[in-house]
From TrEMBL:
<dbReference type="Pfam" id="PF18932">
    <property type="entry name" value="DUF5681"/>
</dbReference>
<protein>
    <recommendedName>
        <fullName>DUF5681 domain-containing protein</fullName>
    </recommendedName>
</protein>
<feature type="domain" description="DUF5681">
    <location>
        <begin position="24"/>
        <end position="107"/>
    </location>
</feature>
<dbReference type="InterPro" id="IPR043736">
    <property type="entry name" value="DUF5681"/>
</dbReference>
<feature type="region of interest" description="Disordered">
    <location>
        <begin position="1"/>
        <end position="53"/>
    </location>
</feature>
Length: 286
């Protein structure tokens, strides 16, 4: 049956019925019948991913085990052991377990790398925003200089994430550095006086400890090379009694009242370079 497309009569007193809605309920030309529009869908909140399985798997993959190879006992990670076993198992035609293990390891490592990259990007934005001199840092958040970002490693915080505790630890390290610097001059004089073997091309361990403590400090507390050298020259010009007095004051500042520091041995400059390079690498120092 064909629908009647004829318009209703123009008389507004016609009876309301099928195809004849009341005038008050008709759509007005140019006006939407749903002015608010379609309601937006409520976004689904994705729960945080459970990384416990991934983390435990990677921990197991990096666990060091001992393998006997002939008369030798080798130490290697589980992942390395599986890689070695894969070549042997391939000759026997059974590589399914090894392949599955290595594929899972690669997948988890990729996910972990992406997670670390996102974390580092977030903290880099934080450093860019609050790292400029004179910028007010929000209360309770770490100082930008205390945020350590190393390539491929999770972000960590120098002396902890709590800013007040971190500042206390920084001051303690400053006092240890100053005490070791004084002790280094005392040790150097003692070794030269006794003509300890190697005294002319080695340095006291106390100086190494002072250098390491200084490198672990953030820029706002760290001595630059010129300042460090100037302090050493000052100590070289002091009498022995004044050096010992300053050492006592430095130990008291740490809280080691009445403590005695003995002459520390010498260490080769090559070992010093290795230690300082490792600290620089870990703390992201150029």
């Amino acid at each position: 049956m064909t629908r009647d497309t004829r318009k209703p009569p123009s008389n507004r007193t016609y009876e309301v019925g099928y195809g004849k809605p009341p005038v008050s309920g008709r759509f007005v030309k140019g006006v939407s019948g749903n002015p608010r529009g379609r309601p937006r869908k409520t976004p689904l909140v994705q729960p945080p991913p459970d990384t416990s399985v991934r983390d435990s798997f990677l921990e197991e993959a990096e666990r060091v085990i001992q393998l006997r190879e002939g008369d030798k006992v080798l130490q290697m990670t589980v992942a390395d052991a599986v890689r070695r076993a894969e070549a042997v198992a391939a000759l026997k035609g059974n590589t399914h377990a090894q392949r599955n293990f290595l594929e899972r390891e690669a997948r988890y490592k990729k996910a972990l790398a992406e997670e670390i990259e996102a974390q580092q990007a977030s903290w880099r934005r934080y450093i860019d925003r609050y790292g400029a001199p004179g910028t007010t840092i929000p209360k309770g958040l770490p100082h930008p200089e205390d945020v350590i970002i190393a390539p491929g490693k999770p972000v960590w915080f120098r002396f902890g994430v709590d800013p007040e505790d971190a500042e206390k630890h920084c001051l303690t390290f400053c006092r240890f550095r100053d005490a070791f610097l004084v002790q280094a001059e005392i040790d150097d004089r003692c070794h030269r006086r006794k003509r300890t073997p190697g005294y002319d091309h080695k340095v006291p361990v106390s100086l190494v400890l002072a250098i390491c403590a200084n490198l672990m400090l953030p820029n706002r507390h760290r001595h630059d090379q010129d300042t460090f050298g100037a302090i050493q020259l000052t100590h070289m010009s002091l009498r022995q009694s004044e050096l010992e007095k300053r050492r006592h004051e430095a130990l008291c500042a740490i809280g080691l009242n009445g403590a005695r520091m003995f002459v520390m041995p010498l260490i080769s400059k090559q070992e010093v370079v290795q230690m300082t390079n490792e600290i620089k690498r870990r703390h992201g120092i150029e």
